[in-house]
Design brief:
Blueprint: E1 3-7, H1 12-28, E2 31-38, H2 51-73, E3 82-88, H3 91-102, E4 106-110, H4 122-132, E5 137-140, E6 151-155, H5 161-164, H6 167-177, E7 180-187, H7 197-207, E8 214-219, H8 223-233, E9 238-241, H9 247-254, H10 258-264, E10 269-271
Parallel strand pairs: 1-2, 1-4, 2-3, 4-5, 6-7, 6-9, 7-8, 9-10
Antiparallel strand pairs: 5-10
Amino acid sequence: MKKIIACTDFSDNSKAAVNYAFALAQHYKAALILLHSYLVPVPVSEVPPSTEMFEQAQQTAEKYIHKLQEELQLKNTAHLPITTYIENENLLLCLEEYCKKNNPDLIVIGTRGQRDIVDVLVGSNTMKVINHLTYPLLVVPACAKFNPLKKIGFACDFEKVVETTPVDLLKKLVTDFNAELFVLNVDYKNKHFKPETPEESMLLDHLLFKLKPRYQFLEGKDMSSTLDEFAQKNKLDLLVTIPKSHSFFERFLKGTHTRQLIYHTHIPLLCVHEK
């Protein structure tokens, strides 16, 4: 892991995500990029925003991001490079532009943003980023603090495991932190059990054999709340999921407790897209 982007809107919640990203960068001796996007409010009139408004917004953003950069430099014992990137654009387009040019290994984002200036949740931005970008995205709750990963959960539905399982990433995380891996499958009265499920299960076991995973078959009507309950009860440090077209994540997003899990969980959520 060489490049980590930490998204910030300077709220307390985003600072928690930045601090988590900073600690992770220290661990991997990776470059850290502080990224901030902003939009100048457009007045409801025929008069366009003045040049002064854009300049003031830019200056304010630069002031806050450089302050954050200086605070992190004081703790930068590994002397890793910390750079900044600011763009007058929405978060998704800002990330798309930066990622195309710099190809980061990880994007880190908080669960909520500030509401006093622009009444927008970073949570909603988070879902847009998950749905449109293919880079690994780590969603960090406001209360999370980085600790070396001891227990990692991988949510899996045993469908097309060869094509979808992020084997290399799981191997890297488990090996780098000497962590224990839990493969988590949620079902309710075998509703999602298919004829090919046993074979897919065996294929996954072959893929992850060297990691010695522990398989947990969880019974629950709501996937997100069932995962959240297990994660907290067993003190998982990270939960890995596969978003987009993957049916498991589709069910995950439709759960009645999804908003609570994504926006309020104590456990960082790593979203890794299908291969």
